[in-house]
Amino acid sequence: MSDKLPQRSGQSGADLVIIGGGIFGLWAARKAAQRGLDVLLLDAGRLGSGTSGGLLGALMAHMPDRWNAKKQLQFDGLVSLPFEIAALEAETGLETGYRRTGRLIPLPKPHLRPIAERHEREARLNWHQGAHAFAWSVMDSPAVAGWPVEDYCQAGLVHDTLAARVSPRRLTAAIGQALRDHQRVEIREGVHVLGIDPKRKVIRLADGGSLGFQSLVVAAGCGSFPLLSDLGPALNEPLGRPVKGQAALLRAEIADDLPLLYLDGLYAVPHEGGHVAIGSTSENSFENAFSTDEKLAALIEAARRLAPRLQKAEVVEHWAGLRPRAVGGDPVVGAHPDAPDVFALTGGFKVSFGIGHLLADAVLDMILGVPVALPDSYLLTHHISVAKGE
Ligand SMILES: Cc1cc2nc3c(=O)[nH]c(=O)nc-3n(C[C@H](O)[C@H](O)[C@H](O)COP(=O)(O)OP(=O)(O)OC[C@H]3O[C@@H](n4cnc5c(N)ncnc54)[C@H](O)[C@@H]3O)c2cc1C
């Protein structure tokens, strides 16, 4: 037991209980243990078996224009992530498939060129930090023929040198391994949390048991919203909802250091070993969360048109999962106003892998009473106001 937080009798024995072992909960557990806290990490299934066990792994920045605190935070996340990953890989001996390969964005229409050139200037202003500077360069044609096909590059294309990729499964496995090796961390898998009693500081479990906590982080992905929504007075609408996404993994004869391609919501992300991940659909209504269908087939066809060298690539996996999307749109972080020992860490929607480590640090700062500067729209209090209709 660490001496960072006061101990209460009859509790789990941990300073911090975390619900959910997806990318958010995993980073939170790692960072908490690094700060000397004893951690109990619970997951209804296995670590990394939720949406974070997907296959796309695109790490992309917001556009470099109209700079604000949210864009800065995501930029900082993308700049700092490789250092976190290098430490993790050195510690565990496991590779995560991280590489800053950059991104290519075709410009199919002439009017897009001046916009891209404006972004090129804005990236020069905004995309740098110390020795790290990244570019949004407008080019006339692709450096590697056919990646993407020139038909889509009527007005040229953009090369963004900030974007990167990582294997979601390898990254979650590596953090999970580091946690299993850490003496301050206890992991319990197959433990489904049904509810939280903030007054008694107890969580209710599906097996009929209960568990006390001192501080609690709710990082249960889509499962976070019902747990958090029930904590205070009734809300007009839930704090968030699941959005289905489908993706596929192809096996192609291509170099794994090619930049990822992005066009109108379509991603083609080259990974290690000639694998290329294709994503993603965004579905607000669906019957089966985990089935794949013709929408994914259409996406794969669109990717083959954009990059003909994928034409004959074999599809080795179809995958679908649920992204947690908060009612306010942004990630949800921080203490609940009616339950000050319960902290949200969820709702990353499409950008969780680029910022999960930073938001984990932010929530731990809050727990330990260290001042934190996060965009207001990320705070749980903000999302509760939105859900109340205020
Ligand atoms: C098709 C698709 C493509 C995507 N592509 C990208 C991408 O390229 N880049 C990117 O950054 N993001 C991407 N995302 C989004 C990203 O995958 C998610 O935002 C992220 O994985 C969410 O992580 P999480 O930790 O919040 O949730 P999860 O990974 O779902 O983890 C939550 C965990 O909590 C557990 N849990 C849930 N409820 C309970 C409960 N009541 N009790 C105990 N345990 C519970 C679950 O078992 C699970 O393990 C994509 C998502 C999809 C669907």
From TrEMBL:
Pfam families: DAO. Coiled coil: none annotated. GO terms for molecular function: oxidoreductase activity. Residues 15-361 form the FAD dependent oxidoreductase domain. One of its GO terms (cellular component) is cytoplasm. Keywords: Oxidoreductase. PANTHER family: GLYCINE OXIDASE, SARCOSINE DEHYDROGENASE-RELATED. This is FAD-binding oxidoreductase. It comes from Peteryoungia ipomoeae. The lineage of its organism: Bacteria, Pseudomonadati, Pseudomonadota, Alphaproteobacteria, Hyphomicrobiales.
